[in-house]
Amino acid sequence: MRVPCIMYWPGRIPAGAVVSDMAWSMDFYKTLAALGGAKVPDDRIIDGSDILATVHDPDVRIPDRPFFYYRGNALEAVRYGDYKYNCVNGILYNLREDISETIDIAAAHPDIIKRMEAMLDSCRTDLGDSLTGERGANIRPAGRVENPKPLAVYEEDYPYYMALYDKPDVG
Questions:
Q1: Is the pLDDT of residue 45 over 90?
Q2: What count of other Cβ atoms lies within 10 Å of the Cβ of residue 118?
Q3: pLDDT confidence of 142, banded at 50, 70, 90?
Q4: What are the tens digits of pLDDT across the range 118-141?
Q5: Measured by CB atoms within 10 angstroms of the end CB, which terminus of the chain is less buried, N or C?
Q6: How far is residue 104 from each of residues 43, 109, 114, 149, measured CA to CA in Å?
Q7: CA-CA distance, 139 to 165, in Å (whole number)?
Q8: In this structure, are 93 and 171 located in the same domain?
Q9: Which pLDDT belongs to residue 141?
Q10: CA 63, CA 20: separation in Å to the nearest integer?
């Protein structure tokens, strides 16, 4: 989950700036729309946030927001701020102090677990959870393309990387 994003834009993005706030790929849609002056549709749920202010000024914080970990349709964990709570086994980690997720601090922080359980309940109501049988009011089917064509094509004399989106069972 910890994948760096490197941006380069002389005169717009300060050189050498580092932002450690959590952002995710879903933020690119709203951010690039804002950059291009496009209007994001408001007739449906669009995931992600516009983080353009942080791109331009690394001192502008990206607000903390829950990040949910699904395996298939099973909701397994939530991350919020420095904490990650695995609801399947009841383990809580402080990722700032324990990036390897080796020290369970759940017993010492029932207040954090209670807050994160409320976030999980809200997510289940919204997107569902096969572990609890919750259907989810806003569950949306995965997008599909008729007659998909791979984005990467194998060539014997060229370095080749299989992209996950080129696998037939991914979509």
A1: no
A2: 12
A3: confident
A4: 999 999 999 999 999 999 999 877
A5: N
A6: 42, 10, 16, 45
A7: 21
A8: yes
A9: 77
A10: 12
The separation between CA 55 and the C-alpha centre of its own chain, rounded to angstroms, equals 17
Phi, psi of 16 (to 5 degrees): 80, 0
Instruction: Tokens for 117, please give them.
Output: 């359980």
pLDDT tens readout for residues 48-63: 999 999 999 999 999 9
DSSP string, 133-157: TB--TT--PPP--SS---SS---TT
Question: Looking at the structure, do residues 127 and 148 belong to the same domain, yes or no?
Answer: yes
The DSSP H or E segment spanning 78 is: strand 74-80
Instruction: Give the Cα separation of 75 and 67 in Å (integer).
Output: 11
Mean pLDDT of the chain: 90
Q: What is the largest CA-CA distance in the chain?
A: 57
Together in a domain, 167 and 120: yes
Domain shared by 23 and 39, yes or no: yes
Q: Which residues are registered as beta bridge partners of 33?
A: none
How many whole angstroms separate alpha carbon 37 and alpha carbon 24? 21
pTM given for the model: 0.78
What radius of gyration do the chain's Cα atoms show? 19
pLDDT score of 98 more than 90: yes
Domain boundary among 14, 45, 63: 63
